[in-house]
């Protein structure tokens, strides 16, 4: 009797359903799966086999760097209609990283592979809207994550590509606590003055007072974490 298979509820409880797996990606044109990652190319955010990049007119395979697109159709240079554009052949994320690298190389005027404070401040001046010297220096120090005085490409990439709304809460609190010198939960004007001195930014008393008032929106005489967060993410 012990050799019989269980039936009914007992059999159903023992049977394990294998976890559902997402199907492997397939070519947008032929719907066949890719044998390896090297057989796949991304065009307009969709995967294709290299030999599926064909001209809609002559049906010849077109190298991806020569591919033209018009109204979601591929063409070779010979048969491309008026208004056809070069088809992006890479993943948007990779393309964006290349653009960031090109920007980094332009800013890195001495070509040493890092950005010194002067080089990065020029980038901030171009990208920012009426940023003060104090704000530029603050941004520079935030971007320099390991505090070695220069900004590497990885630090620059993280700084440029990050959405300010996605900055981790603990990172914002860490910055705020560094400015809250006495640890009472608010940044008072005297602490604000020490911060400016630490950042090596020469500000007059009126300038410090003006910046402080613009952040202290509730006019309490101290900058709370919420006010600081709103100012950083503006």
Automatic annotation (TrEMBL):
Stored CDD domains: EFh
Keywords: Calcium, LIM domain, Metal-binding, Repeat, Zinc
Annotated stretches, region: Disordered: 1-29
Pfam family, one: LIM
GO cellular component: organelle
Ranges of biased composition (kind: Basic residues): 1-18
Residue ranges occupied by any EF-hand domain in the UniProt entry: 95-130, 141-166, 167-202, 203-234
InterPro entries cross-referenced by the UniProt entry: Centrin_CML-like, EF-hand-dom_pair, EF_Hand_1_Ca_BS, EF_hand_dom, Znf_LIM
Organism domain of life: Eukaryota
GO MF term list: calcium ion binding
Keyword check for Calcium: yes
Residues annotated as domain LIM zinc-binding: 25-86
SMART domains registered for this protein in UniProt: EFh, LIM
Name of protein: Calmodulin
Organism: Anaeramoeba ignava (Anaerobic marine amoeba)
